[in-house]
Structures are given as C-alpha cells and as structure tokens.
Amino acid sequence: MANTETAAPKLPIIDLRGLIFGTSSWISTCKEIRSALEEYGCFVALSDIVSDDLEVDVLNCLKDLFSLPSEIKSKNISDKPFHGYFGRRPLSPLLESLGIENTNYLQSVQDFAALMWPQGNHPFCENIHKYGNATIGLAEMVTRMLFDSYGIEKKQCEAHIESMNTVLRMLEYIPPKTCEAEVGSSAHTDKSFLTVLHQCQTSGLEVETKTGVSLSVDFPPSSFLIIAGEACQGWSNGRVHSAVHGVKMEPTIDQMRYSLALFVYAKRTIEVAKEFIDDEHPMLFKPFNNYELLRFYTKDPIKRKIKNIEEFCGV
What we know:
The chain has 315 residues and is of the alpha+beta class.
C-alpha cells in the first residue's frame, strides 16, 4: 500500500549569498522570494553578513545590556509605539526588550549607549553599529529583489528604500517558571514593511501557515527569518501574505533566550503599486502611513486584533 502520509510543511530556505544583480541566479532567487512571501509571508534567508565572531560579540552585548537595572533601561523612550523599552508585564511575563532607531548611524547607537552607560561602552557601540549596518543592508537587498520580482520601476524601489526608517529591537526571554510551555510573545503580525529576525542559540519562534498550522522555525547557521509585515501586504494589494508568528518557551528551556528584530518602516506614504491593479485585481487598500498603521494597532489594547490593515485602510 502506498504511503499516504504527507510531509509536514516547512518554511522555504533561500540562499542569498554571492548573488549578483541581473544574473540568472539573481532573477531566479527574486522569484523564490516573491513566492515565499506570497505563500508563507516569510522565509529563512541564508546570509553571511554577520560573522560568527560578530554574533558572539553581539550576544555578549545583549547580556550586558539586560543585566542593567530596570530604572536605567527605562530611559529608552520613544514617541513611536514599540520603539522604546518594554519591561516584563502580565501579558508577556517572560519578555523584556529595548529598541534603537537607525543603527546604521553610529551616533544613534552612541546616543542610546550614553543613556545606558554614562561612562561609555565602546564595544557595545561598535558591535551593534556593525550588526545594524549588516542587517539593514540585508533588508535593502530583499526589498530590491521583491520589487524586481514584480517588475516595478527601479526609481520607485529606490524612493522606497530612501524612505526606510528602522528600529533594532533587542529581546530577552527568561525561562518558563512552570512545568508547562509558556507564551513568550503572543501571536501577532508585524506592522512594518519587512522584519529581519535573528535568533541567538535558544529556539522558540513559531510561524502559522495560511491554514493555521503552527511551524517551529529552525535557524541554520548564518541565517535570518525575513517576515513580511502588514505594510507590505497593503503595498502589494494583498499579494504578499503577512505572517502570524510568536514565541513559545518550552519547559525544557533552562536558559535565557536572546533575539534581535530589525523592523523596517516606510516614512513616506505607501500606495498600492500600479503593477498590482487591473480589471481582475481592483485596488484593495487606500494610501496609508506606516506609522499611523502602527498607532492604529496600539490605540485600543482591549480590542486589539492580530491583523489590522483591512480595517485601517481597506477600500
């Protein structure tokens, strides 16, 4: 009798190393990225932008940062939602996080470090700046490939990249305090255009498929998870899927979990590209501001939904 069991779905793994613009491998990889973001809303990217040594140095920086007293970390404030310090709270008792905007600018990292360590912390500034440069470069590359895959004019892509604003969120999860799995970060979609997520050593990230199947994300060496946010879904007229994801801490985890998430927002108004609109595909979303979408999500915590783009700017 034939085996009728179907293999469990897995997230696509796409190799972004050594690609050269315009080559056949570039074009085929662009198509892979498009397919992955339309079908799964995310994919595992293989990239050598962060060396093993830098990853170790950044992890040590995170440990130093989170060892600071809460009253020091709480100086990390921002007028943008989810850009500053978040301490552990009833809905996310395992998670603590901080954010730095535009880490590709050394001054931004130095300003943050001056709040945390008035006496200075050169290794932190050097390593986080280097890491920020690398991951922002990866985000720009994926953005160019996504635009290219849809045949969108280069000048539109460059205008979008020039309008990018980023925040690097550094996250620490403490081990579960019970003998059962605990939620580290509840299921959600990102409101960003793209997110570049890096998991340090300890697992826990889960992604839901379109059918609601939960997949544990495995991070091979030198890999990142690229996640499409709701802003990308809006820009693509619903072609790109915004992936629901979260963190579950299993009771077997007995060490701190560290991760870094680079959220990429657009400062300029996002409009559905004309390439996505025709007689069979009418415009689904009105022009919108990425940060207003983020604020819309945060305005009513009681009624907060996982996905907001349709209610926020749906036609």
